[in-house]
């Protein structure tokens, strides 16, 4: 069984449509794939139809923008009730923050001398409900300002660069209980990716477990071998589920091919047993 529990489609900032993503997952030899778009569940129905057609198990999920001590933390949620009002309200607030941020980024880039408009970004975002910096990056590539997403982030969109703007994120300690009450399973994405290690130490993870946290994503491209070994030991001590995933974004992120990291079937079963409803 090959299981990949973290992927993005064009419902957020991946480049494949939800159906194409599921077909690619099948072609990559996966048996189970989770669709975890940023702050959005709008890709679920299309992905589920495609999964039925090609014969692969789809786990409906999402990756929620949260914050802890002013640092961004990505929280994966699997199999929540998509109509649970507190979940819907939290996502609405995050998506509004995304929408409000786009003009702020565009203004900042224009002040920096780049002739980019909100329409340029909207065109790249297409059907996505979760407009993000990757769409701004795509617009910058199309305008010839950057060669790819990575260069656009490094030169203009990362924190501290001229086109950076902050946006709203839900406090993590609020989101874990909401997701759990929605019947979902909460797993912290790439906990030590980028700058997470300082925030998500063992004491904090233990507190989050008391709030309902079910697991941590250990095998992720942002984690070194040492990070993975340490996180695995923490998960064992705290009895947290360990996941592994690609964080695939289609052509939007290099080195994140489907199935590049996978989740152990036993851990997947544990995760399912914690969900109110199974796929
Ligand atoms: P946002 O959600 O709009 O703040 O943008 C953050 C998202 O951009 C992340 O979730 C990644 O998917 C993506 N991202 C961040 N850094 C890079 C990078 N260097 N290259 C490509 N995508 C990136
Ligand atoms: Zn993304
Ligand atoms: Fe993430
Ligand atoms: Fe992701």
Count of distinct structural domains: 1
Strand content: 15-25%
| Mean pLDDT level | 97
Number of helices: 10
- Supply Rg: 18 Å
Could you name the CATH homologous superfamily? Metal-dependent hydrolases
Using the alpha-carbon principal axes, give the shape. Answer: globular
Architecture, CATH level 2? Alpha-Beta Barrel
CATH domain topology: TIM Barrel
Name the bound molecules. Answer: adenosine monophosphate, zinc ion, fe (iii) ion
The amount of helix comes to 40-55%
Give the class from helix and strand content and strand pairing. Answer: alpha/beta
Distance between the termini: 16 Å
According to CATH, what is the class? Alpha Beta
The profile of the biggest β sheet is: 8 strands, mixed
The parts where pLDDT drops under 50 for at least 5 residues are none
Strand segment tally = 8
Name the helix and strand elements from N-terminus to C-terminus, one letter apiece: EHEHEEHHHHEHEHEHEH
What's the oligomerization state? single chain
In short:
By secondary structure, the chain is of the alpha/beta class.
Layout of helices and strands, plus pairs?
Blueprint (H helix, E strand, L loop, with lengths): L2 E2 L13 H10 L4 E7 L5 H11 L2 E12 L2 E8 L6 H27 L6 H8 L7 H10 L6 H9 L12 E2 H10 L3 E4 L13 H10 L3 E5 L5 H14 L2 E4 L20 H10 L5
Helix pairs in contact: 1-2, 4-5, 5-6
């Amino acid at each position: 069984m090959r299981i990949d529990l973290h992927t993005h489609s064009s419902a957020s900032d991946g480049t494949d449509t939800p159906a194409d993503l599921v077909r690619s997952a099948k072609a990559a030899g996966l048996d189970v794939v989770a669709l975890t778009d940023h702050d959005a569940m709008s890709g679920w129905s299309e992905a589920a139809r495609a999964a039925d057609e090609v014969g692969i198990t789809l786990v409906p999920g999402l990756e929620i923008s949260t914050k802890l001590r002013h640092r961004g933390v990505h929280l994966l949620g699997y199999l929540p009730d998509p109509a649970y009002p507190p979940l819907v309200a939290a996502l609405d607030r995050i998506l509004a923050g995304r929408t409000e941020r786009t003009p702020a980024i565009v203004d900042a880039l224009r002040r920096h001398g780049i002739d980019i408009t909100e329409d340029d970004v909207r065109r790249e975002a297409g059907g996505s409900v979760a407009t993000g910096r990757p769409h701004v990056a795509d617009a910058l590539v199309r305008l010839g300002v950057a060669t790819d997403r990575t260069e656009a982030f490094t030169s203009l969109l990362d924190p501290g660069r001229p086109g950076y703007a902050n946006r709203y994120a839900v406090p993590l300690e609020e989101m874990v209980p909401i997701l759990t009450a929605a019947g979902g399973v909460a797993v912290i994405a790439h906990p030590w990716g980028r700058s997470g290690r300082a925030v998500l130490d063992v004491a904090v993870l233990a507190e989050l477990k008391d709030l309902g946290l079910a697991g941590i994503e250990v095998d992720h491209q942002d984690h070194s071998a040492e990070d993975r070994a340490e996180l695995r030991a923490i998960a064992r001590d705290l009895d947290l589920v360990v996941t592994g995933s690609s964080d695939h974004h289609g052509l939007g992120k290099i080195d994140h091919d489907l199935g590049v990291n996978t989740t152990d079937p036993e851990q997947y079963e544990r995760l399912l047993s914690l969900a109110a409803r199974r796929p």
